[in-house]
Amino acid sequence: MTGALTRYRIMATIVGVLLIVLILVGVPLKYLLEEGSGGQELGEFITTYLGVAHGWLYMIFLLTAFVLSRKAGWELGFTIVTLLCGTVPVLSFWAEHRATQRTRAEHPEAFGPAATTAVG
Question: How far, in Å, CA of 62 to CA of 80, rounded?
């Protein structure tokens, strides 16, 4: 259980950071600056390459979140919301925090006494 949670938390953080950079930096640079300017070209580079990387890493995120959901015994609704939160900038951080708290609270035996006091 701890390994699945750790993998999920790492992927949620990576996907969340990449999505923020992609949407809040790359897209505005690409579409709001003058065509051919250095900033616009940087935005083009970010959206092209970071967009592809985010897509592939999001697939890994989906897999790690799904594996954790099965091991932790989440119901379908909680699982779907957690999976979809990786598509909205900043929301993946909230979902990761929520999933971590829930998993640690529902499975204290897997995380030891320090984890249960940190959750409460």
Answer: 10
